UniProtKB/TrEMBL annotation:
One of its GO terms (biological process) is methylation. Keywords: Cytoplasm, Methyltransferase, rRNA processing, S-adenosyl-L-methionine, Transferase. GO terms for molecular function: methyltransferase activity. This is Ribosomal RNA small subunit methyltransferase I. It comes from the Bacteria. The keyword rRNA processing applies.
Length: 283
């Protein structure tokens, strides 16, 4: 049965998913401040971190803990609060809740219980890194953290290697070198962008091949997002309709039609002039 929620046209209690700054407090939105002031309870991944944020904006709303280690117990408590008519905001330590952070199970329970789930827009390290990467933004796949174990990490990368999507990973500084070496071995020496310390004083983007970034990776610290270009299509001759679609994709990524035609012709090992005439209907 369809679940149809009209967020601003009902009076049901609401779970708000409130994005918070990923480093720069100036990116806290007016609506986020308003919601955190108005709700009855704030459920936080780490109440100590969240209290610092609340104090910065003079928000005095009561804060409770909701994290992976108390998730099942916390869910039942939050559902009970909603049943009592209270509105609740869920926040993670930084950025959007549920993106590599707790909350997915809670959201499903809240929906099943018949209450509203409403997102409150704000910072997202995934999107920040993607749009500034210089790598094609559509389509993309957000993977999150690869497993720290080499075997599981290798298996995951093998499953991802042939996908025609830009892929985005999170990684910790003490694991970044091993992660990139695995990417180099399995994905090949692709173009990447490593974004670190996003929105903070030491924000930095390292754009180049995986091997080039590996040369300096031991110098960098901070939380990291790695944007990896999609796999190249196999260079077999493919139908003209597919070639036209590929050219249009490169144009959507910022290339001129001339450069896109040149790139596709080179990939497929065919005549650039013939492809130009076919694309523009000059034959």
């Amino acid at each position: 049965m369809i679940n149809r929620q009209k967020s601003f046209h009902n009076t049901a209690p609401t779970l708000y998913l409130v994005a918070t700054p990923i480093g720069n407090l100036k990116e806290m939105t007016p609506r986020a401040i308003e919601i955190l002031n108005e709700v009855d309870i704030i459920a936080a991944e780490d109440t100590r971190n969240t209290m610092k944020l609340l104090q910065a904006f003079d928000i005095t709303t009561r804060c409770i803990s909701h994290h992976l280690h108390n998730e099942n117990e916390s869910i039942h408590g939050i559902i009970k609060l909603l049943e009592e008519g209270k509105d609740i905001a869920l926040v993670s330590d930084a950025g959007y809740p549920l993106i590599s952070d707790p909350g997915e199970k809670l959201v499903n329970y809240v929906i099943e219980a018949g209450f509203n789930v409403v997102p409150v827009s704000g910072s997202s390290a995934v999107l920040n890194a993607l749009v500034a990467s210089g790598i094609c933004t559509q389509p993309f796949l957000f993977y999150g953290f690869l497993d720290s174990g080499e075997g599981k990490r290798t298996k995951a990368l093998i499953e991802l290697k042939d996908l025609p999507y830009t892929i985005i990973f999170y990684e910790a500084p003490h694991r970044i070198e091993k992660m990139l070496k695995s990417c180099l071995e399995i994905l090949g020496n692709r173009q990447i962008c490593l974004a670190r310390e996003l929105t903070k004083k030491y924000e930095e983007f390292l754009r180049g091949t995986i091997s080039e970034v590996l040369e300096v990776v031991d110098e960098i610290k901070g939380e990291m997002v790695v944007v990896v270009e999609a796999t190249e299509k196999e260079k077999d001759i493919i139908p003209l309709s597919v070639l036209r679609e590929k050219i249009d994709q490169y144009v959507d990524c910022g290339l001129s039609s001339k450069d896109a035609i040149k790139k596709v012709a080179k990939e497929q090992g065919i005549s650039r002039n013939d492809l130009y005439r076919d694309y523009h209907g000059l034959n």
